[in-house]
Amino acid sequence: MHKDKIGFIYAALAYFIWGSLTIYWKQLQILNSIELLTVRVLFSVITLLLIIHSGRENHYFSYFRNKKTRRSLFLTALLIGTNWGVFVYAVNSGHVLQTSLGYYIGPLISVFLGVIILKEKLSLNQYGAILLAATGIIYLVFSYGTFPWIAILVGGSFSLYGLFKKIYHLDSLNSLLVETILLLPIMLVLTFLYDSQKGSQIGSTSPIHWVFIILAGIVTITPLIIFAEGAKRIPLNAIGFLQYITPTMFLLSGVLLYGEPFTSHHLISFGLIWTGIGLNFIRFSKTREPSSDQPS
What we know:
- The chain is mainly α and about 300 residues long.
- The protein is about 80% helix and about 0% strand.
- The protein has 13 helices and no strands.
- It has helices spanning about 5-25, 35-50, 60-65, 65-90, 95-115, 125-145, 150-170, 170-200, 205-215, 215-230, 235-240, 245-255, 265-285.
- α2 runs antiparallel to α8 and α6 packs antiparallel against α13.
- The protein is globular.
C-alpha cells in the first residue's frame, strides 16, 4: 500500500479515536473530575514507561536533570493537565458541545499565537478566519449571556501546549512521560484534599469501571502513537483537513447521543467558525511540506 494511503489511514484513525473519547469517559461518570484526571495521569505514566522501556530510545532522565528543560516541561505539564481536566469535566457534566467548539477554534488560536509569539505572517484568508471565529464566540456570549470558558480553556490550553512543544522540539513520548510524572504528585494531592472534603467515589466502582480505569493510559497514549506514524507520511494540508474529524464527532455525539441542545444560536456561532476554518484551510491547502507536529 502506498505510504500516503497508510498515512491517511493512521491519521484518520487517530482522530477518530480522539473523537470517540467522549463515549469512553462517560463510562467513568461515577468518578469526580479530579479523580478521573488523576486516574488518566497515573495510568498514562505506567503506559509510557512500559512503551519507552520496551525498545524505544529513552532519555527522559536527561530531561529531568536539565533545569531549563525540567521547568519548560512543568509548564507544558500544567497546560496538558488543564486540557485533560477541563475536557473530562465538560464531558461528564453535559458540555460536550463546548468541547467541540474548543477544538474547532483551537487551530485558529494556534494561527493567532504564531503571529504573536513566533512573528509569523498571516494571509488575508487567515486574518478573516480569526475574525470570523472571534465573531462566532462573541455572538455566543451575547446570545446566552455566559462566557464559553470550557471551549476557550480546551482550545487555548491545547494550542499553547502545541506552541511550546514546537518551540522546545523534544521527543514526544519522552517529554510526555516527564510531563505526566511532574503532574502526578499535584493530582494526588488535589485528589486527597478533594476527597477528604467531599468523599471518594473510586472506592464504590464496579469491576467493569476498573477495566476502564486501568485502560485509561492506553486510551490516552495509543492515538498519539498512531498519529505520529500518520503525520510523517502525509502532507500538512491533509493533517489540516483531518483534524476536524475529532470536533465533528464531539458535536454529533453531544447532540445525537447525549441530547445536548443545538439551537439557532449555536448554528450561527458554529457557522461563523466553520467559515473561518474554510478560509484557514484554503491557506493550508497551498502548503506541501510534511508535518512533524504531533498532538498529545
